Amino acid sequence: MKFGAVAIGRNEGERLQACLTSICGATKVVYVDSGSTDGSLDTAKQAGAEIVILDTALPFTAARARNAGFERLWKADPSLEFVQFVDGDCQVVSSWPLQALAFLEQHPEVAAVAGRRRERFPTRSVFNWLCDIEWSGPAGESKAFGGDVMIRVKAFREVGGYRDDMIAGEEPELCVRLRQARWRIWRLDAEMTLHDAGMTRFSQWWRRSLRGGYAYALGASLHGKSPDRHKIIEARRAWAWGLWLPVTIAFACATFGAWPALLLLAYPLQIARISLKRTGPLRDRLTVATFQTLAKFPEAIGQIMFARDHLFGHNRGLIEYK
Questions:
Q1: Exposure winner among 99, 141, 264, 289, fewest CB in 10 A?
Q2: Does pLDDT of 211 surpass 90?
Q3: What are the start-end ranges of the E strands in 184-321?
Q4: Domain range holding 249?
Q5: Contacts (Cβ under 8 Å, ≥6 apart) of 233
Q6: Does 19 score more than 90 pLDDT?
């Protein structure tokens, strides 16, 4: 079975070299660059990848980059059946392509398969560690995949690929349309990629969470009224915990005095509730629960940013965290 590969990146440095050299068995590897200034183009050329440079006149998005890479692959070989998408800060596990292709061959109703993405340096910072936990998930049928995925060309073309204008959350949005077209998505119990988040500062984590809130609002605006109410729950949680509750407490304190500040106890209670639902060491559970609760504040800000952009018709570019 033939498959091509599309890697996307922007100033990934040595991570890009590791990414491109890890892709084994592809008939062609296309690297799509989004305005790098660090020598990424030379790295891709030396690795033997075909290079696509995005037009800087339009806002950069991962969705746009992946679509451009796919179009280059498909025009070069319209008989291509499968494409492996991979982010430039990831390294493909050598056994993954054959496992993914074998599953897709045996299950023609499945549009795409993903496996386990792991953080390369989970102990370097709590933020990398949180990413590693985020990538974890049960094997079996799934509602969505992330940036790294082996996808069936027929299914991808049928639904029109990614939406170029989505600056975040483009993968789950594509999955909504795939499932609406009666395709299925699967997660295999297999190692797929090693990821390097490179997050060592709180500000990076905050900006990544802000991007997540933007993605919730954008996804809900597109498919919130669909039967699965895409991203509605996530968006409402961010509004409730990150905006409405603190605003209500502040207003109540200004009106009635200091005693409404006791309502702030809702946050440690929420942390306790989330930690009790998880498994593992208590310290780990509390850490995850604390950051999940804290993330509601940047997520709410991200949704406010989306509302402002939507109201004024502003086309926002990438929200980068590294």
A1: 141
A2: yes
A3: 184-195
A4: 223-312
A5: none
A6: yes
Predicted pLDDT at 260: 87
Residue 321, in any domain of the structure: no
Buried b (16+ CB within 10 A) or exposed e, 143-159: ebbbbbbbbbbebbeeb
Chain segment 60-102, per-residue pLDDT in tens: 899 999 999 999 999 999 999 999 999 999 999 999 999 999 9
Q: How far apart are the first and last CA of the chain?
A: 36
**Could you give the number of structural domains in the chain?**
2
DSSP 10-58: SS-THHHHHHHHH--S-S-EEEEESS--SSHHHHHHHTT-EEEE--TTS
CATH at 157:
3.90.550.10
Both 31 and 130 in one domain: the answer is: yes
Residue ending a domain, choose from 163, 185, 200: 200
Percent of the chain exceeding pLDDT 70 equals 100
Determine, yes or no, domain membership for 213: no
Strand partners, 3: 82
